[in-house]
Design goal:
5-stranded mixed barrel
Length: 485
Amino acid sequence: MSEDLLQEALDTASRSGARFTDARLFLHNRLEYLSIRNGTPEVLSTGDEPGFGIRVLGRGGWGFASTTRLDRASIRETAEWAVRLSRRTGMADAEVPFALENNLPHGGTYETRVREDPFAVPLEEKIRILSEAEAALHVAPEVKSGKAEMTVWHEEKLYASSEGASYRSAITHVGGGISAVAHTEGESQRRSYPNSFGGDFAQGGFEFIRGLDLPRQADRVGKDAVALLLAPTAPSGTMDLVLSSDQLSLQVHESVGHATELDRVFGYEAGFAGTSFVRPGDIGKLRYGSPVMNIVADATVPGAMGSFGWDDEGVPARRVDIVRNGILSGFLSSREMAARQGLPSSGGTVRGDGPLRMPIIRMTNVNLLPGDHGRDELISEVKDGIYMETNVSWSIDDKRLNFQFGTEVGRRIEHGELTTLVRNPIYSGITPEFWGSLEALGNKDTYHVWGLPNCGKGQPTQTMRVAHGAPLGLFRHVRIGGTGG
């Protein structure tokens, strides 16, 4: 029956002369969020939310329409709306370019490997884990607030297109984390694990949340927050900077991932999220960073949040070079934008956040590949610098050029050794100059793929779950500052 509804939409659009049509039928779109803050539980759960979205490419432009009514009459009506919109959105005498693709799926299936179904784990068990973790954060009276949280998503959809492509996808994402806020005499400090803004996330089952071992980590997190209250303010000046894997992953997201989305490069996001300093003709020419900088967009990474079988245009998951040896070498792209750019094929990075949003270019797993330095070896190369870990604030301009980031914690590096704990460290720079100062990267032992559940883009805004792999990174002569008294 579900496949029949997809075919009904394709047939309706075809009879109206559509050049290309694809449709997504969401059978399940479920979320469960749990948190414990200062002993008080909060539970947010949404049941299955089926829905249907159809995208039509006419001669002049795209049309998109959606519905939550899953009967033949509603599907036909929705498809007709999409066709009408496609005739109104573009120029009648212009044809939207659209790249052809090979290896389109015909009845393909992609499903997350789950050892322990997170929705089958009793609510009491989940609350127990979070309660134990949150209670263990309160190591001293200075810890005024503790929070432990976890989130689970499940999305199951069917895809079909007028090219004969079709697939079924069932993806489960999970994650969680803890944070403590310490306060005394007008000073507040926060410490998080395993990352800030909700923790770490991946594609998998409840086994991933168990592996975070939140209760056992909580004592250290609480003590770190208290210790930061007494730490001196981070120094200001130009010095060497070592970034942790989690902070470097956010740097990749903001200054590389968004900057190389080809719709932004062409100005399609100018009304909301800005544009990019990168230009369409920069491939093979733009010196993005130092020769040790290699970044790929890779939707094939096992267990990563930005992985899938095929994107929302039927393009197979693939690995695309974005920066190779410091030179811009590719873009995150769609079939339309790839054709506009003259690329042979799409980067396979188009997704929509649910049935009611038109798919657009989104990050997959945009990863900074590791180098060959061990942690101690990399730090030993710094005579006077600072190590920063775990993001607390970020700011970057609309072109993804000028930025400033702050982290929860810092440590001075003196004569190759980590020494004094410092609070409120920040660093700033200009994207190509900053990446140009990258001298060394940590090896695979320092590398981790971090899930990011809340990447926002588009009008109306869509929230997408993506990921970024990063090792430790050593940057020379960076502008450093500290805030607070």
